[in-house]
Each structure stands twice: as C-alpha cells, then as structure tokens.
Amino acid sequence: MKKILNRSGDIVTQSIQGFLAAYDKYFEAVPETNCIVYKNRRKGKVSLVIGGGSGHEPLFSGFVGKGLADASANGNIFASPNPQVITETAKAVDEGKGVLFIYGNYEGDNLNFDMAEEMCGFEDIKTAHVRVWDDCASAPKERIEDRRGIAGDIYVIKVAGAACDAGLSLEEVLRVTEKARDNINTIGLATSPGSIPGLNKPTFELGEDEIEFGMGMHGEPGIERTTMKPVDELVDRMYDELKREMSLNSDDEVAVLVNGLGSTTLVELNTVYYELDKHLKSEGIKVHDAEIKSWCTCQEMGGFSITILRLDEELKKYYDASCCSPYYAREALI
Predict the structure, then answer these.
(1) Where are the domains of the chain?
(2) 279 has catalytic annotation
(3) Which of 56, 129, 279, 288 is catalytic?
(4) In sequence order, what DSSP letters do the residues of 274-287 get, joined into one string?
(5) Is 56 assigned a catalytic role?
(6) Which architecture, in CATH terms, is 184-330?
(7) CA 166 to CA 26: how far, in whole Å?
(8) What does 32-57 look like in DSSP terms, one character per residue?
(9) Which of 176, 238, 246, 292 is most enclosed, with most CB atoms within 10 A?
(10) Tens of pLDDT along 83-139?
C-alpha cells in the first residue's frame, strides 16, 4: 500500500509536528507526547479534552480550537492514547473547574480514559466523560452502550465545546453533552478498504462490486454486504435505518452531516445529500443545518456516513455558537 511517509513508526509524531509547525500561532504540544493544546483557550472554565487513535483525521486533533476542544490526546494509528498521556493532556489544560473527556466507545479508549480519570483524581482534578455511541448499525438499541462512536463525535464535540465556553459547571456541561450524544445517530457504508501505514495489506477485503452497510471505521463487521447500487438506493436504505432508529417525524428539527470516509469525493458526497434532502423534505423534517465534508475518516477508505442530530432549543443554542479550528468552523455566512 503506497503511503507518503518516511518511516511508518514516525508517521503520527511527524504528522503532529507538521501540524504544529504550520499552526504554531494557535497550538502547542503537550511535552513528550503527540498531543496538542489550543493556546488561546478561554480561562476559568471547564476544560474539554478529546482523543482516540490517529488515522481518522481531521478527527480528533482537527477539532481543537476556539469554541471546540481545549486539547486532543492522540494515540498511534487506530490505537488509544495511553492513560499517562491522557492525564498529562488533562493537566495541561485544567483550570480548576474540571475536565470533560469525549471519545469513541471502544474497549481500548474506555479502559485508558477510565484509568486516566483515576490518575487525575490523584492530582485533585475533577473529571467526567462522555462515550460516543452513535453507530446504530453496530448493536441493537437495547444494547446501546455496545455501539461504536463514529462521525457523531463531531456534533458531540461541537455542543460540548460551546457549553464549556458558556461557563457551565462540569455537571451541566456533562448533562448537555450527554443530551446531544443521545440525540445523534449515524450509519455508514464502505465501498473499499483503508490501510494502516507500514502494512502491505488493506484493513479488510471487499469485492470489486461489493459494498458493506454498517461497517465500522476500522473494518469491523457491518450489517449487510451487497453489490454496488445507485446512490438513490443506498441512501434510501440508510435513511430508512435512521428514521426507524430515531422515530423521525415532521415535528423534528435536525442537523445533518454527510461524512466521507477518506477517499470519497465531494462530487459523490454532494450527490448523497441530494438524495437525502428528498427524504427530509418529503416528510416535512426541518433541516436547521447541513454540512458535507470528510471529518471522521479511515485513511483512504471509500464510502460515507450519514449523521442526524435531533435538536431542541437548548441544543440549538450550543450548536449555533461560533467556533473555529483549521478544519472545522461555524459562523453565519451572511
């Protein structure tokens, strides 16, 4: 597998150092780690630390910035950061108001962030966490805590960052963030595999004319493997899953995210939204906001995901708050 790198073992460190060299006006490293901190973060508030394995860029480091996360704890490719690294990242941004951790619901992340919270306790740092489990294809609703976190991370981080900047207590930030998490669902499909730098084989195999609904970000099994179909049929299937999962109806107001998994072009992603928009309009669901881009990726994996966030007035306030990072920003265009 062709990769633009020096040595595979150095790719995460050199990627982070390249990011910091380009954006050193805004970010700095947590010493002796691959983690980054936003220099101009607001003081005297709850701190937000996000993190997980590298290889999903711009998630997670690309969501550190104004109105977003204060720091990102970054592991190796597809591997959780270790507890000591997470703890040092939390210490670097702690303002005495507590630290909220947000990460995807994966065994390694759960274990390491739990251990980091214990270590933070020894440093008298108050902590809480939100595990994102938006992938509705990865487990049934009655086992929601077994579901994986995928592109829904973006909306959870967005709301949490705004709640922190608004000066809410750790308990209130946690409540608002969990509310956002629990109103988000995502389903994706893969058209081709990604890869891990240094390995000469893909993370999974798909036939030339095969796709898989519900496949995870690391190649975890999905819910159905079938032949490639026109985009209207793909979106029909995915929207039906989301509608049933969320009981969507004409009283709902939503934010929608069409996310590319790494190699899918904007031409294709825009066409996905073209088809999705038909469903939303025909059922009278109000779209408060929609975005089309690649935020939560898996190297060069082909495919896309659709994320829906159901909004109420409280969530809308935090969703609409301005924010900015090199890869994600929200501000009125008019």
Answers:
(1) 8-181, 184-330
(2) no
(3) 56
(4) HHHHHHHHHTT-EE
(5) yes
(6) 2-Layer Sandwich (3.30)
(7) 21
(8) TSS-EEETTPPSSS-EEEEEEEESST
(9) 238
(10) 999 999 999 999 999 999 999 999 999 999 999 999 999 999 999 999 999 999 999
